[in-house]
Amino acid sequence: MAQARLARREHLTGWAFIAPALILLGLFMIYPIIWSLWMSFQVGKGMNLSFGGFANIERLTKDPVFLRALGNTFTFFIVQVPIMIVLALLLAVALNDATLRFRGLFRTAIFLPCVCSLIAYSTLFKSMFANDGVVNQALMALHIIGAPIAWFSDPFWAKVVIILAITWRWTGYNMIFYLAALQNIDRSIYEAARIDGVPAWARFRYLTIPMLKPVILFTTVISTIGTLQLFDEVYNFTAGNGGPSDSTLTLSLYIYNLTFKFMPSFGYSATVSWVIVVVVGILSLIQFLIARDRRSS
Amino acid sequence: MNRIVSRHGRMLGLALAGISFLSVTAASAGDVTVWAWDPNFNGATMKEAASRYAAINPDANIIVDDSASQDDIRAKLQTQLLAGSTDGLPDIVLIQDDVAQKYLQSFPGAFEPLSDSIDMSVFAQYKVAAATLDGKSYSLPFDSGVTGLFYRSDMLAEAGFTPADLENITWDRLVEIGTEVKAKTGKPLLDLDLNDTGLIRMMMQSAGAWYFNEDGSLNIVDNAPLKKALETYAKFYQADLVKPVSGWAEYTGAFTSGEVAMVPVGVWITGTIKANADQSGLWGVAPIPRLDVEGSVNASNQGGSSWYVLASSDNKEEAIDFLKTVWGGDVDFYQKILTAQGAVGSLLAARDGEAYQATDEFFGGAPVWQNFSTWLSQIPSVDYGTFTAEVDSAVQAQLPTIIEGGDLTAALQAISDQAQQQMQ
Amino acid sequence: MTDTTMASAAAKPVARTSILPGNFWGLVRRSIVYLLLSIAAFISVFPFFWMIVGTTNTSADIIKGKASFGGAFMQNATTFFTQVDALRVFWNSAFIAVVGTVLTLAISSLAGYGFEMFRSRVRERIFGLLLLLLSIPFAAMMVPLFVMIAQAKLVNTYVAVIVPTVASIFIIFYFRQATKAFPSELRDAAKIDGLKEWQIFLYVYMPVMRSTYAAATIIVFMANWNNYLWPLIVLQTAENKTITLIVSALTSAYVPDYGMTLFATVLATLPTLIIFFLLQRRFVEGMLGAVK
Questions:
Q1: Domain count within chain A
Q2: pLDDT 10s digits, B370-384
């Protein structure tokens, strides 16, 4: 009897702790989300909306701009996330070496970019990658290129700059997660492996990676969400255009354009947002499954 | 323990009291708030207008907020109109002409028709037409986007040309001149941004054409001026006369620091160019070239914007009276903003004012304002429709292919297809 | 925590004395590591250096790509301070960022603690759902959110900027992870002493987890300080704009003044840098807790 009461009390306390957050999330997230789900079945422009069933989904399949945005978003995701994760891991492992000098200095320096404000960093990157900006000047001085690269006028290079920029900004951030996780690993395991003659790369592959798996999964999921929602960089770098030739147009930027730049077509833009939700859901599931699979094998 | 609880209780009370301070004082009734987007241009002219109105009408309080960019203003306006909420909207807002119809048609009833209380015949008619829907005009026309070919006279001379060589020419002729300039001075003719269709649009409008037919349907595939404009655009690249840039900063940076010889652009750029006082006397302005198609003239428009009164405003009468009094009749005011900000207004009577007759040493002592006035009267009027942004985006998607010399017919078809898709 | 590992490692220089070739290759490898780290650090820091150089040059010099210090710093500062009501703008930003951070930490750490300490099937489901919600782009929610704020007559208030961001799913997630490392003996002992659950949270959990709070402070403060789209929409008058909004508008003027803009950019970055350097040591510890 007393135990049951205690359990119920415990149960209520649990709710009490999460209640403030749940109420706020319900108000400021669930409600708008349900609203946008409802909107995704509406067709029409501006204030003249009417129920259209699955018309918006049908429109998606025929919309070349949407398909381009989807393709770009995937390119960013497939190229950028792995590069960043691997870089962050390598840096973390290098910095985890206790005998390394200036560790704190390196760590701080590499983490610094993510403290930089978005506006600051987009202003910076735009001017650094300008036609006669410092990057072109440096590359030409080193004789890597003969003529300046028109970074933002070329569909390929524009994508490269975006990827470089995101990598610059977030590698240090991810690195800190790995660094923290690495410091939790019992060093004696490494010593034992080293004494057994296991080479460095194998220690990395068969000790470090498996032990960091939960963190890698966590950062991968967070980066996936971040990349699929990619907006700030492309909006600021291309004056809201996603150009040249839609080469940097992402799904989020397309949503923004459909809502704020074009003749407002709110139902359709809500549909595109739900595409992101579905894609993130699927990708997260795949990532979880891969992580679990490896663990069992 | 109780003490601790009560301490927290007090803190909660304090916190709640704090919230009441959180709301920032809103503009009080009787104030007229105006949104503009450049403190050195339209914001400054509006402030000048406000001070003139205050001189006649001491009770009036006109507040000009020019702290947001044009993109920001559009996002704010559109969010609030979509949300059907008007609390945060100003009384008067500045909107660029080519997007005006989108707002007027998407949000019926959101803007106050001004043609009932203000005589629209005193303004340049193409400006009035841009803001007219169902026989009513909704804006007080502000700056004209009449275009000119701004050029560096020193570079032109170095290449062996005189200003007269730029009068009454076609874009094809400009490509020839540009090739010569590049050969002699090493400077590209102009700087272009593949994310911006401004040049193509001004070429098209010089022939009285736009992306749409009169009934609002797409006019792309058989649009001869558009095709010719895209062809010319490609020629600039193929003749290697372009410095590629991206974004406003780089775009303006290229011609204000002498990296390119010319810039065909709306008259509102004057302030940006003249901000570099050390280049005084090195600049000239010619009429923009025409397209080699039927009906094209040596005059066009790029951008330009107008003042709109929100129907939700509590101070509509005052706002309209303000616009009517200063913007609709004060010729002297227009002389002032022309001199101070380089703003070419749309009030026809202002053209006879003294500032418009003056010559400008910065442009080698030429009567630039008179020239602009002349060109202004020749601008073919077009209907910008409601889907210009969508078609622009479709055009931009094809530009990289076009400048590489891709097939124009295919490009036009692709533009048309994409735009059609976006317009549903 | 880093310092202790470093100290203990230094105390016992294990297995570093091997035969010569190993030593030689070790030296080579070490040099490569230093070189790569230096390159990474240089790339990371260079834009900051470039930004600071920019504040000392005139607009014209910056366009020409000048990368050395100039003498226009005072001129840029003067232009900025005459054009922008800096005190007001910084007050707005600081108020929103500080109040927003404190509230976010309070509400979200409570929830993180609650989810981890009191597990039930329903709450686990809710938690799973929250993770999925994390993926919804903000642009999709902006219009309905604005409708709500407008109906509550909160347009143009700090409340409208702060409150919708206070329950942060990411921070709840982060605190839940960190709570896994919170020693349960502490909680048990506190219970035996007769402390109620909220007292445990307040007097045991919060002090013990201060590093976690420090790390979260940096993350949340940065997000609040740099928040752009939502403040843009709900803050309407010039008097309540934040520095982020102002800097963004500066870059799109008809006559852009880059020197002044870069000066504003540096000012806008300074507070987040200061917070970071103040909390840096705790930050790494806090991250450590979260990934245990």
A1: 2
A2: 898 889 888 888 888
pLDDT tens, residue by residue, B17-75: 344 344 444 444 578 899 998 887 888 899 999 999 988 888 888 888 887 888 888 88
Q: A residues 190-229 near C, CB within 8 Å? A: 191, 194-195, 214-215, 218, 222, 225, 228-229
Residue A182 forms part of a structural domain: yes
Same domain, A23 and A81: no
**Which pLDDT score, from 0 to 100, does residue B263 have?**
94
Q: Which residues of C touch B268 (CB under 8 A)?
A: 254
Cis peptide, bond prior to residue A244, ω within 30 of zero? yes
- Tell me the three-class secondary structure of chain A, residue by residue: CHHHHHHHHHHHHHHHHHHHHHHHHHHHHHHHHHHHHHHCCEEEECCEEEECCCHHHHHHHHCHHHHHHHHHHHHHHHHHHHHHHHHHHHHHHHHHCCCCCCHHHHHHHHHHHHHCCHHHHHHHHHHHCCCCCHHHHHHHHCCCCCCCCCHHHCHHHHHHHHHHHHHHHHHHHHHHHHHHHHHHCCHHHHHHHHHCCCCHHHHHHHHHHHHHHHHHHHHHHHHHHHHHCCCHHHHHHCCCCCCCCCCCCCHHHHHHHHHHHCCCCHHHHHHHHHHHHHHHHHHHHHHHHHHHHHHHC
Which chain A residues touch B423 with a CB distance below 8 Å?
263
> Which other chains touch chain B, taking contact as 3+ CB pairs less than 8 Å apart?
A, C
For residue B88, the domain's CATH number is 3.40.190.10
Calculate mean pLDDT across residues B320-340: 88
Residue numbers of the domain that contains C241:
77-290
Residues in CB range of C103: below 8 A, 6 or more apart: C162, C163, C166
The whole-chain average pLDDT of chain B stands at 85
Q: Are C31 and C86 part of one and the same domain? A: no
Residue B366 resides in a domain: no
Which CATH number goes with the domain that contains A254?
A: 1.10.3720.10
Tell which of B393, B416, B423 to mutate to test the A interface (max A CBs under 10 Å): B393
Considering the domain boundaries, does residue A160 fall inside one? Answer: yes
Please tell me whether residues C86 and C35 are part of one structural domain.
no
The CA distance from B45 to A239, in Å, is 26
Q: Which domain holds residue A43?
A: 4-10+15-51
Strands (E) in B203-244, as ranges, are: 242-244
**pTM of the full predicted structure?**
0.81
pLDDT confidence bin for C63, thresholds 50/70/90: low
ipTM of model over 0.90: no
- Searching chain A, which residue's CA lies closest to the CA of residue B414? A64
What's the mean pLDDT in B409-413? Answer: 91
Query: Which positions ≥6 away from B323 have C-beta within 8 Å?
Result: B92, B114, B118, B140, B307, B309
Number of structural domains chain C divides into: 2
Confidence band (pLDDT; 50, 70, 90) for B15?
very low
Which residue does chain C place closest to B255, by CA atoms?
C63
Q: Residue B300 has what pLDDT?
A: 92
Same domain? C37 vs C174: no
Residue C8 lies in a domain: no
Does residue A114 sit in the same domain as residue A33?
no
